[in-house]
Design a protein that fits this description.
The chain folds into 2 domains: 64 residues, no CATH class; 48 residues, no CATH class. Helix content is 63%, strand content 0%. It is built from 7 helices and no strands.
C-alpha cells in the first residue's frame, strides 16, 4: 500500500475549493472521484486543476504555488518513438579494412564478428564501435 504523505493534503484542499466555488463542474467532480479512488492525479490532471483553481479569487496563493511546485517536480512523459539509427553516424572507410585484417589473423574474434554482423545489418557503425575496431587493430600490431 502507498504510505500517506505527512502534512496537509494540498490537492484535496484545492479540489474542495474548486467544488465549493462551482458545484456543477463535472471536471472537478471527476478529479475528486479519481483522487479519492487512486490517491493521486496525473500531471495533466493537476495542470487542469491549477487552471480551474487559478480562476477562484479568494483562494490562498500558497496553495496554488504548492500545486505548481508539485507539477514542476513531476516528470514529463514523452511518447514519441526513439530513433534507433543515428543518421549522423558515418562509418569510417578504414574500418572495413581493419576488420578484414583482424579477421584474417583472428577469424574467431567475437567482438569483431559481432560488429561485422551489426555493420551488415545496419549498414553503418557508431563512432564508439569504429573506435573499438581501431583500438583492436592497433593492439594487434
Amino acid at each position: 500500500m502507498n504510505k500517506k504523505k505527512q502534512g496537509p493534503d494540498i490537492i484535496d484542499k484545492l479540489l474542495e475549493a474548486c467544488y465549493n466555488h462551482n458545484k456543477d463542474a463535472l471536471f472537478t467532480m471527476s478529479l475528486m472521484h479519481q483522487y479519492e479512488a487512486r490517491g493521486w492525479l496525473t500531471k495533466k490532471q493537476l495542470q487542469g486543476l491549477h487552471n480551474k483553481a487559478s480562476k477562484i479569487k479568494d483562494l490562498p496563493i500558497g496553495l496554488l504555488a504548492t500545486l505548481e511546485a508539485t507539477i514542476n517536480k513531476m516528470p514529463n512523459r514523452d511518447k514519441t518513438p526513439i530513433d534507433t539509427i543515428n543518421p549522423s553516424a558515418k562509418t569510417n572507410p578504414n574500418v572495413l579494412h581493419w576488420m578484414e585484417n583482424i579477421l584474417l589473423k583472428y577469424p574467431q574474434h567475437k567482438t569483431v564478428l559481432a560488429l561485422k554482423a551489426k555493420l551488415n545489418k545496419e549498414k553503418e557503425l557508431s563512432a564508439t564501435d569504429s573506435a573499438t575496431i581501431e583500438k583492436i587493430f592497433k593492439a594487434m600490431k
